[in-house]
Amino acid sequence: MKRIADLDPDHMTPAQRGVYDTIASGPRKGVRGPLAVWLHRPELAQNAQALGRYCRYETSLEPRLSELAILLIARIWGSEYEWYAHKPIALEAGLSAEVVEAIRTGVAPAFAHADEAAIHAFVLELHRERKVSDVTYAKAVERLGEAGVVDLVGLAGYYTLISMTINVFQVSPPAGVANELGA
Question: N or C: which end of the chain has fewer CB within 10 A?
Answer without folding.
Answer: N
